[in-house]
Design goal:
Shape: globular
Order of helices and strands: HHEHEEEEHEHEHHEHEEHHHHHH
Radius of gyration: 22 Å
Largest sheet: 7 strands, mixed
Helix content: 25-40%
Number of helices: 14
Strand order of the largest sheet: 3-4-2-1-5-6-7
Number of strands: 10
Amino acid sequence: MKKFILAAAILFGTLCTLSAAKVKPGIEVLRDNGFAPLVGKKVGLVTNPSGVDSHLNSTIDILFSAPGVDLVALFGPEHGVRGDAYAGAKVEDASDPQTGVPVYSIYGKNREPSAEMLKGIDVMVYDIQDVGTRSYTFISTLGLVMRACAKLGIEVVVLDRPNPLGGNKVEGCITEPGFFSFVSEFAIPYVYGLTVGELAQLINEEGLNCGEKGDQEPLKCKLTVVPMEGWTRDMLYADTELPWILPSPNIPTGRSAIDYPASGICGEFNAADYLCIGVGYTLPFQVFAAEWITDADKFRDYLIQCNIPGVDFRPIHFKPMFGPLQGKLIHGVQFSFYDYEAAPLTLIQFYVMQAANELYDKNPFELSQGRTRMFDIVCGTDYVRKHFGETLTVDQILEYWMYKDTDDFKALSKKYYLY
């Protein structure tokens, strides 16, 4: 009965929609092809609320009601399969209230599915909207799921989705030995310019699937990627005309995904001591502000004089609604892109840190000493801290961060382009 009700609801929702998106995500291509890789098999699914078709039907419900598909288990990454766990909160084993399918947590005690969780599963499906930045944990979950499935001979099917940063941006050095973690799982740049399906192929074929410490034997699974239709590498998310379903609470829009790599590394420092990056306000990852910035116009003028390609700044004053600076009036800048292709996303935050030091003698490595290890892990290296921290000038890290690995990675990546 549940299957019938869900199937009817999905059909009604689809028929009531008058226009189609330019891009067809992998779940729709899978459905158009009669769910061929899944028919007659017991299916596990790794997903979250961002796993929907263009009419907002959940991949959970689509697969549960699909003829010939036996959805037997769901796997909850950070935030859970239905999005009911906040950032960083452990996801618990449960039962999905809509379908009754058991839900196993892979963001808690287990980050890699155990053999017991995978028992009886023939094929594991992955469908989560990626954000295009290495430190977001969903791709780490993908790698660990692929690894677990490889051990047991379980096929993995990745339903592809757009990279909201487009397919051309590659920035940051690759993760270096000693800095692999759940937020730097693979030896890839910080911004990697691949869809999640393309990245899965690269991980699988290049032996990058080596666990959180990067020191385990790489394992190769049987991998199928169901590609999108209509996506091109120059597309940002808005160009796809697909609805954006926030993959996590602080990425409410496709624009937020673009802002994240421009400020998220700076956000590893304590906002109460250093800079608020908009988490706790209506502009997450789009601002830099603090109580100690006494002249927002001067701060903005300094950044404009840095001549950062493609980026504009304006002064901003606001009171965060939650977090360590809740209710306090803080001052700083909001940034915007007038030429996205030219803009060096990840360098924006380093220029802001340079400005904070030049104008207000604020050194984040002194103000947030307990966060330096996390800063290194997110950067995937301690080179940035050791060299940028000497003078807090961008020139100290420009060559290493922006150019050391990017050309080689782009050349490698092209082997796995699907678009």
